[in-house]
Design goal:
Structural class: alpha+beta
Helix content: 25-40%
CATH class of the largest domain: Alpha Beta
Strand order of the largest sheet: 4-3-5
CATH topology of the largest domain: Ubiquitin-like (UB roll)
Number of strands: 5
Largest sheet: 3 strands, antiparallel
Number of helices: 5
Number of domains: 2
Strand content: 5-15%
Amino acid sequence: MNKRLVVNGSTHELDLDPAERLLTTLRGRLRLTGAKEACGVGECGACTVLIGGKPRLACLTVTATVEDEVRTVEGVAEEMAALRESFAEEGGFQCGFCTPGQLMSAYALCAADDGREKTDDEIREAMVGNLCRCTGYLGIKRAIRRVLDA
């Protein structure tokens, strides 16, 4: 099937299998390897991308169903410079495998400016779908809090 997909501001005309996962499209066809293949069943968040500004799991999303722009960690790298620095300074990552997914969920939370201060419970809720086996979650929470409070 033919599909027009907008990723990080670029339009791609694709001929794909109707059941192809967005993660496969991003990594295999478009060579955007920031979103990681880990669990493959939507439990770890390593494949988190933004679709229409909302975090979504690319391993569970069928490319053919995507209508809004997809943004990957590569596409928001400059916009999230303060968040990346904060993750590094607060010990928000170690091995780095889950970091792109963590950053995408954190970025969505930080970018959702509704004019009010976010609580620690809201930070935890925003990050609940992202698992990390290395850092523990305190460094990640501190990094996000630091950016939100800046």
